[in-house]
Design goal:
This protein is an alpha+beta fold. It has 2 helices and 5 strands, in the order βββαββα. A 5-stranded antiparallel beta sheet has the order 2-1-3-5-4, with no helix packed on it. The longest helix has 9 residues. The chain starts with a strand and ends with a helix.
Length: 86
């Protein structure tokens, strides 16, 4: 919906792949939207070593691609592979 920018350019692709060093931000026009403020207010911001996030300016920086061991979520990759192999 054109609410997010990467390095100042609007990105409208959900599967956009970030490169280390890129800055992701909420567009100025979108910062007052209830959906965005609600999402930020209700989120528990995890501290990941590969991300920097400033809640006040609604910007974040992708520092580096994480190793699998650095991702704390319980993701079962084999189930994903099986689903998309059908």
């Amino acid at each position: 919906h054109r609410h997010i920018t990467v390095d100042g350019a609007v990105v409208n692709i959900p599967s956009y792949t970030l490169k280390p060093g890129q800055v992701v931000a909420v567009r100025e026009k979108s910062k007052s939207l209830e959906a965005i403020n609600s999402a930020l207010a209700n989120s528990s911001v995890h501290k990941y070593s590969w991300l920097e996030f400033d809640k006040n300016s609604m910007t974040g920086k992708f520092l580096n691609t994480p190793e699998r061991s650095e991702i704390p979520e319980n993701i079962k990759e084999q189930l994903i592979v099986e689903l998309y192999s059908k």
